[in-house]
């Protein structure tokens, strides 16, 4: 049985840096599951900054949809696995399937395998529900989906942390 850690926070809150530090504490080799896609120049730049900051001790696995399969398939290989980020995974799933229920089923399936992992897992997710109500239906669907997914994963996690203004706050564990 491994340790499951969920790290959340808003945009530029320091959550990725916090999560990377937590994973580094387990030693190397370290696995990094990147769920984002470089669909435009700005996103490609973000990905490049993350890669540069991590350095060579991380083995990056890029997987936008099959998160559970990648985690389970690499269980036992690394000292820890970091997923950055759950929110982009949800977005990818929502666009791929256009079915909120199916996306939540995939989140539940992921949560169900977490207790059986041998490798510590650090999941990064965004807190998107603290702002204004979005004006369009897709954005409201995504906000609600992310909130529900975060609740499911937080329930399955041993520890939950939030980053605000670059500072960590432990919520669970």
UniProtKB/TrEMBL annotation:
Q: Which CDD domains match?
A: CobU
Record-stated family = Belongs to the CobU/CobP family.
Q: Give the Enzyme Commission number.
A: 2.7.1.156, 2.7.7.62
* Species annotation: Geotalea daltonii (strain DSM 22248 / JCM 15807 / FRC-32)
Establish whether keyword ATP-binding is in the entry. yes
A Gene Ontology BP annotation from the UniProt entry: cobalamin biosynthetic process
**Catalyses which reaction(s):** adenosylcob(III)inamide + GTP = adenosylcob(III)inamide phosphate + GDP + H(+); adenosylcob(III)inamide phosphate + GTP + H(+) = adenosylcob(III)inamide-GDP + diphosphate; adenosylcob(III)inamide + ATP = adenosylcob(III)inamide phosphate + ADP + H(+)
Kindly give the PANTHER family that the UniProt entry links to this protein: BIFUNCTIONAL ADENOSYLCOBALAMIN BIOSYNTHESIS PROTEIN COBU, PTHR34848
**MF GO annotations:** adenosylcobinamide kinase activity; ATP binding; cobinamide phosphate guanylyltransferase activity; GTP binding
Q: Mention any Pfam family matching this sequence.
A: CobU
Keywords in alphabetical order, please: ATP-binding, Cobalamin biosynthesis, GTP-binding, Kinase, Nucleotide-binding, Nucleotidyltransferase, Transferase
Which residues are annotated as active site? 50 (gmp-histidine intermediate)
**Protein name per UniProt:** Adenosylcobinamide kinase
| Function summary | Catalyzes ATP-dependent phosphorylation of adenosylcobinamide and addition of GMP to adenosylcobinamide phosphate.
Q: Which NCBIfam families match?
A: PRK05800.1
Question: Which pathway does the record list?
Answer: Cofactor biosynthesis; adenosylcobalamin biosynthesis; adenosylcobalamin from cob(II)yrinate a,c-diamide: step 5/7; Cofactor biosynthesis; adenosylcobalamin biosynthesis; adenosylcobalamin from cob(II)yrinate a,c-diamide: step 6/7
Binding residues for GTP: 9-16, 34-36, 51-54, 62, 84
Q: Does the keyword Disulfide bond apply?
A: no
**InterPro entries listed in its UniProt record:** CobU/CobP, P-loop_NTPase
């Amino acid at each position: 049985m491994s340790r499951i850690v969920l790290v959340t926070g808003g945009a530029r809150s320091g959550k990725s840096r916090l999560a990377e530090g937590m994973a580094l504490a387990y030693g190397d080799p370290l696995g990094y599951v990147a769920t984002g896609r470089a669909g435009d120049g700005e996103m490609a730049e973000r990905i490049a900054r993350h890669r540069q900051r991590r350095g060579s001790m991380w083995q990056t696995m890029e997987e936008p949809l099959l998160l559970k399969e990648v985690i389970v398939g690499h269980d036992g290989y690394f000292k820890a696995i970091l997923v950055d980020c759950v929110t982009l995974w949800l977005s990818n799933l929502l666009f791929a399937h256009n079915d909120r229920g199916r996306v939540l089923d995939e989140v539940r399936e992921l949560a169900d395998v977490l207790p059986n992992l041998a490798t510590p897992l650090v999941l990064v997710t965004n807190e998107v529900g603290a702002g204004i109500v979005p004006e369009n239906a897709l954005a409201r669907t995504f906000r609600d989906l992310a909130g529900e997914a975060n609740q499911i994963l937080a329930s399955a996690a041993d520890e939950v942390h939030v980053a605000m203004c670059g500072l960590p706050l432990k919520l669970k564990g």
